[in-house]
Design a protein that fits this description.
Layout: E1 4-6, H1 16-20, E2 26-29, E3 32-35, H2 46-50, E4 56-58, H3 77-86, H4 100-108, E5 123-127, H5 130-150, H6 157-166, E6 177-184, H7 190-207, E7 211-214, H8 216-223, H9 227-232, E8 239-248
Antiparallel strand pairs: 1-4, 2-3, 5-6, 6-8, 7-8
Helix pairs in contact: 5-6
The protein binds flavin mononucleotide.
The site of flavin mononucleotide has 9 residues, from strand 7 and helix 8.
Length: 269
């Protein structure tokens, strides 16, 4: 089957599709754009998305799957800045589960994030069972205690104390849900692609009334391949956890935008 189909009656041979193609699959010939290097196609869909006349179709990125952009930019820069700067790490959640459709909507945004060479290949596990999360926290605390035996001054001792002495969960913050990202064990871009995808998830969460927080302590335990934790989530041996984010309805509203260190920037002329 041909990778690229060009609708000759609507193609005006402007050549934009050949210019945006990242891997030079398309080349402008006398009778219009042609795929000369089909094997290099990374299925990014740029050729299809950019064509002003909808004249290009790509087997790996079908025109029928692409949604028309009605207006661009979709939001003004002030709103965008407000959105980006109003996301916070949420550590206090309402004791209310998030409906599955909302969780699905949230996680579905992850697959639109950019990844190196459009490599993608991240799968997600959404934990809806609070008891499993409670067990995960217990398992992580036990793992931390084992680590502390070797390095008693490890900075994570405060998490163990909070849990053992006060029953406080500083690992998963009592969140009702956890989203795990997984990838094949042999996939080199797993973590990188997860970071990109979860950034989308975290930002989008705020627009549908959800809050999130990266679960770094959970990740540390998971990345050490601690079997009791992996077993709890039925992670097959050919897969690894590449990231974890807590999700739920935020208990409190933030009144001020994120502030950070001043911009450190150099221009080279
Ligand atoms: C990779 C990563 C791991 C993190 N791990 C945790 C964590 O385990 N627990 C936690 O409460 N916050 C965690 N955070 C949240 C950061 O502490 C937070 O992003 C930072 O303090 C800035 O605050 P803000 O997100 O509210 O703007 C993590 C963030 C990132 C990016």
């Amino acid at each position: 089957m041909k990778l690229i189909k060009v609708n000759q009656s609507s193609c005006i041979k402007c050549g934009i599709c050949t210019k945006v193609c990242p891997t030079r699959v398309l080349c402008m010939q006398e009778n219009g754009p042609q795929a000369i290097n089909s094997k290099s196609c990374i299925a990014c869909g740029q050729c299809v998305a950019v064509c002003p006349h909808g004249a290009i179709d790509n087997v790996k990125a079908p025109l029928s799957n692409q949604v028309d952009i009605k207006s661009f930019p979709a939001i003004d820069s002030q709103t965008a800045e407000q959105l980006l700067r109003s996301r916070r790490s949420i550590r206090c959640y309402k004791n209310t589960p998030v409906p599955r459709e909302k969780l699905l909507k949230l996680v579905d945004i992850a697959r639109f994030a950019p990844t190196a060479s459009n490599s993608q290949r991240i799968s997600y596990i959404v934990v809806e069972n609070k008891e499993i999360l409670k067990t995960a926290v217990k398992v992580i605390i036990e793992w931390m205690e084992q680590q502390l035996e070797n390095s008693p001054h490890w900075s994570f001792s405060s998490h163990v104390h909070a849990y053992r002495e006060d029953g406080v969960d500083t690992i998963l913050r009592n969140a009702p849900h956890l989203i795990l990202a997984t990838a094949s064990r042999d996939f080199k871009n797993g973590r990188e692609n997860t970071i990109s995808s979860f950034s989308y998830v975290e930002l989008f969460a705020t627009t549908i009334g959800l809050g999130s927080c990266w679960a770094g302590l959970f990740e540390m335990c998971a990345f050490s391949n601690y079997y009791p934790l992996l077993k709890l989530f039925n992670i097959p041996t050919d897969k690894v956890i590449t990231g974890a984010v807590m999700v739920g309805f935020p208990k409190y509203k933030y009144k001020r935008l994120v502030d950070r260190d001043p911009l450190d920037i150099t221009f080279i002329k």
